[in-house]
Amino acid sequence: MLLDTSGLLCLHQKTEPSHTKACNLYREATVKLTHNYILSEYVALANARRFPRLKSLNFVSDLMENPYIEVVWINEYLHQEAMNLLFARQDKNYSLCDAVSFVIMRQRNIIEALTTDHHFEQEGFQRLLLP
C-alpha cells in the first residue's frame, strides 16, 4: 500500500481519529511504499499543525531508514508524468504530490492507499481511512 501524508499523520499522531485503524492496516500490509514528496508534505503539515519539530523530523527519518518501507525518490521523469496527469485532470483539485502518488501506484500496480484523501478514490484507488 502507498503511505500517503494523511495516513502517516494517522500513524504518527495518537490523537487522530483513525490512529488505531491506521496502525492495524500498517502492521498487516505486505507492501509499504511512499515517496519523498509525501515526506516533504508531511514535514510541512506537521509544522502547520505545530507538532513538536524534533518528533516529526525523527518520524520522517525513521520512515526513510525502515527496511520494510520503500521510499521512491522523484526524478524528472516522474515529476513530468505527474504534471501530465494534472494537465489531463484539470477538473480535479489534485496536488502535485497526489499526482506523483497516482503515477507511482499505477506503475507498481498498487491499488490501496493509507490515506483519508478522497482524491485517491476519484482516481480509482482504494482509500483505506475515512477522514
Question: What can you tell me about this protein's structure?
Answer:
- With 131 residues, this protein is mostly helical.
- The protein contains 7 helices and 5 strands, in the order βααβααβααβαβ.
- It has a 3-stranded parallel sheet. The protein has a two-stranded parallel ribbon with strand order 2-3.
- Strand 4, helix 7 and strand 5 form a beta-alpha-beta unit.
- The longest helix has 13 residues.
- The radius of gyration is 14 Å and the shape is globular.
- It starts with a strand and ends with a strand.
- The mean pLDDT is 97.
The overall pLDDT, averaged over residues, is 97
Low-confidence stretches: none
Principal-axis shape: globular
β-sheet strand percentage: 5-15%
Helix content: 55-70%
- Please give the radius of gyration in angstroms: 14 Å
Terminal-residue CA separation: 18 Å
Strand order of the largest sheet: 1-4-5
Q: How many strand segments?
A: 5
Largest sheet entry: 3 strands, parallel
Secondary-structure element pattern, one letter each: EHHEHHEHHEHE
By DSSP (H or I, 4+ residues per run), the number of helices equals 7
Class from helix and strand fractions: mainly alpha
